Amino acid sequence: MSQVIAVIDFGSQYTQVIARRIRECQVFSKIYHHTTKAEQLRADGVIGVILSGGPSSVFAKGAPRPDPALFELGVPVLGICYGIQLMGHLLGGKVSRSTHREYGHGVLKIGKPGRLFAGLPKSLRVWNSHGDRLIELPPGFRAIGTTENSEFAAIEDIKRNFYGIQFHPEVFHTERGVEVVRNFLVGVCGAKQDWTTKDFIQHSIDTIRATVGKSRVILGLSGGVDSSVAAALIHKAIGRQLTCVFVDNGLLRKGERDYVEKLYAKHFRIDLRVVDASKLFLRRLKGVADPEKKRKVIGNTFVEVFEKSLKSVGHADFLGQGTLYPDVIESVAIGNNPAALIKSHHNVGGLPERMKLKLLEPLRELFKDEVRRVGTALGLPKEVVWRQPFPGPGLGVRVLGAISGDQLEILRNADAILQEEMMESGWYYKVWQSFCVFLPVKSVGVIGDERNYSYVIAIRVVESTDAMTADWTRLPYDLIQKISGRITNEVRGVSRVVFDVSSKPPATIEWE
Ligand code: XMP
Fold first, then answer.
1. pLDDT in the model for residue 370
2. Burial (0-12, 13-18, 19+ Cβ within 10 Å), 26
3. Fewer CB near the terminus (10 Å): N or C of the chain?
4. Are 349 and 303 a contacting pair, CB within 8 Å?
5. In the chain, how many domains are there?
């Protein structure tokens, strides 16, 4: 049986981050609901338990508690934040209720390194986020680290192998936090560090098979990284029980549909249904100039077309989706954030409930870089795995104002040249996004001796890590020159190319 580290979830956003750190240490972990019985953990072969953080106070009514029997399992336990307070509370120490939260940086002074802090310096910058505080140690424990505000910021009971830390080792702001996690996993629990992406894939395949059984799964393939990796993974697990639907909304980049067909249907032999709805989308968009209205029309039409296509595919029980962990927190935690709205597009507008489909989201616990590793291990080509983001409404928000088929064609041709040059120069993979925008204004130019009155194409290239902020990329002048020259020469209807030098904020990445 493989070694499992159990992460007991008390509702903290950080639980998944802990799981991620454990994966980084090449150890397998499973997240368990806090009501899970200790017996279950034993049956699963758990070799160590992490009690994660949580927003509650241990004194709050209905505060989540673990099964106390997990302290009798004979395996090491590490309590983090809420976890240390639970240990204090449940094992006979004393926790003081606090009226204000300690939030932000602190300095941990390590008194006795022991196994948890082995190899670490005497003092560490750590990240705190807690209300209650441990003020009296439970029997058998001693303090091994202190902070300005707490003499029991880190504690251990070496006999039972119980550890508690008040700070969050899993967050980026804690200096050398991964080493603390690794020390617990390897030094205390004896984990082997042999869990790899391949193991993740195998484990997911087993889980998908067990979940799906003989049913069918439908997945809306967009050609982006997340849905592509989800499709490849689910396909590997259940083969022809998976049907992918790709909607051509007429707002795709040049050659996109062919590429998707070639890769997924021909190469991976996935049952792929391509629905050509481009005429319908363009008809619905006729005369619609307002960006938000355009998005709505595109979103609603997508749901309608997708839903209709499902009927022709036949009965399915599951809707596969490439939801990642950041999508999960975005749409749950940040209620009013427009990002959550963006993501709702992926969720095909309440479709699962209406169609009585269960969701199958094998990437739900992963972060983007991990998804890329999984995609690579599944044999997806680099240009898919490292693809730049592309908005759901596609070129619909890159032709400004009301859209016409001719304008889309001009944009598609110009954009194809930009992509080609970005690829060839190696810049494509260095930036967050690079694309063309069609400006529906005409400007004067000359071709040969003739005056020419045509449209303007803007080039937008940005660097970013999360799309919340972005800076325009300083592409070499020679490259800009080459792109501009090719666009004005090769794309009919364009007389001028401009380069966007706005950052976000105040501008956004897309023009609409
Ligand atoms: P903005 O323009 O808001 O874009 O700076 C931030 C990121 O989100 C993408 N984007 C969208 N993605 N549906 C999507 O799926 C949308 O309506 C949408 N609008 C913007 C944009 O490409 C950038 O990566």
1. 94
2. middle
3. N
4. yes
5. 3
Is 299 close to ligand 1, i.e. is its CB under 6 Å away? no
Test site for ligand 1: of 296, 342, 368, 390, most ligand atoms within 8 A of the Cβ: 342
Note whether residue 505 is domain-resident: no
CA distance linking residue 187 with residue 143, whole number of Å: 19
Active-site pick, 102, 156, 170, 512: 170
- Pocket lining: 182 vs ligand 1, CB cutoff 6 Å: no
**pLDDT, tens only, 221-272:** 999 999 999 999 999 999 999 999 999 999 999 999 999 999 999 999 999 9
- Indicate the residue among 146, 168, 188 that finishes a domain: 188
Give the model confidence (pLDDT) of 438-489 as tens digits. Answer: 999 999 988 888 888 999 999 999 999 889 999 999 999 999 999 999 999 9
Residues 176 and 245 in one domain: no
Q: From CA 510, how far away is CA 512, in angstroms rounded?
A: 5
Same domain, 78 and 183: yes
Query: Is residue 153 within 8 Å of residue 108, measured between CB atoms?
Result: yes
* 378 within domain boundaries: yes
DSSP 504: B
pTM for this predicted structure? 0.87
* Same domain membership, residue 159 and residue 273: no
Q: Which residues have CB under 8 Å from 381's CB, separation 6+?
A: 263
- Tell whether 508 is covered by a domain: no
Q: Which of 343, 462, 509, 511 to mutate to test the pocket of ligand 1 (most atoms within 8 A of CB)?
A: 509
CB 440 within 8 A of CB 400: yes
- Return the closest-CA partner of residue 58 out of 92, 84, 39, 86: 86
Residues 425-451 as b or e (16 or more Cβ within 10 Å = b): eebbeebbbbbbbbbeeeeeeeeeeee
The pLDDT confidence band at residue 335, using thresholds 50, 70 and 90, is: very low
Range of the domain at 447: 398-499
Residue 231 Cβ < 6 Å to ligand 1: no
User: Residues 58, 149: one domain?
Assistant: yes
**Do 174 and 239 sit in the same domain of this protein?**
no
Per-residue HEC secondary structure of 231-253 comes to HHHHHHHHHHHEEEEEEECCCCC
> Is 93 in contact with 87 (CB distance < 8 Å)?
yes
Strand positions, DSSP E, 180-309: 217-220, 242-248, 271-276
* Both structure tokens of 356: 């009585």
User: Which residue, 385, 412, 427, sits at the end of a domain?
Assistant: 385
Q: Decide if 510 is inside a domain.
A: no
For residue 504 and ligand 1, the question of a CB distance below 6 A is answered with yes
One-letter amino acid of 465 = T
